[in-house]
What does this fold into?
Amino acid sequence: MKLKLALFAVMMFILTVLTGCEQLTVLDPKGPQAERLASDIKLTMLMMAGIVIAVFVWLVIMLVKYRASKQPADYEPPHIEGNPWVEGILVGIPVLIVAILSIVSVQSNYIVESAPQGYEEKEPLVVYASSSDWKWHFSYPEEGIETVNYLYIPTDRPLEFRLYSHGPITSFWIPQLGGQKYAMAAHITKLHLAADVEGDYMGRNANFSGKGFAENKFDVTAMSQEEFDDWVKEVKSTAEPITEKKFEKLLEPGHLGRMTFTGTHLEFSPAPEHHHEGDKYKEDKHSDEHHSASDKKNSDHDDHKNHNE
It folds into this structure.
């Protein structure tokens, strides 16, 4: 009786706590990439819940069934080498779980790294998303505008984000549209997303990058293509142009509100699309070695020529 009352109390406590929780944004997807990730998370949660429930059920059965022994005090159980069925279950089930999750993870990784399903034939909107301490810069090269700490995107159109950082490594994440991806200095990473539903979403840096990390967020607004085009026209007619001096000021550590500019910083501070710094070093080193070898060869040729003369 006491065991039943304890289990009932625990269940009521869990239900009471869960009713006060808001829905997780990752489980409220608004795009195809996020939909795939949410389904994977739900599958993982169901598998883990099944394991936990099975373990506790067997634990209760063992405690109730074998809570007291009718054997004499000096009873010694027989030595048993092992049961092949039990050992097979203990080894087989974990292997099966890992295999299923591995297959699902590989398939999902391929899907989310490609163009969003259903948008393969559409031209993507390219946005350069770069981070600094502790703000986000969004450059629209085709539209010729730039925003700080907020992002406007059209629905029903693929999005190609080109991510990099002006400082430490950060992680670009819009939970309701897709998974996070790192933004690094001297290197471009690409993230493919799409928004199926108009609305306001939260975006943030998901990688610790210093004392201002907690407020390193940005607002995302998904709208129709017509509204997006109208917004671009309004920005071009009202916003001030971004200059190199203004951009250098923006890169200084600190927090800022929403800002809008015509033009992009890519015009005077290009994104590192072609190579890593390490690759550049290797190219420069290879070039120096090539020139050194060439100079040595020419010098040897001149010495040989002088000797003949």
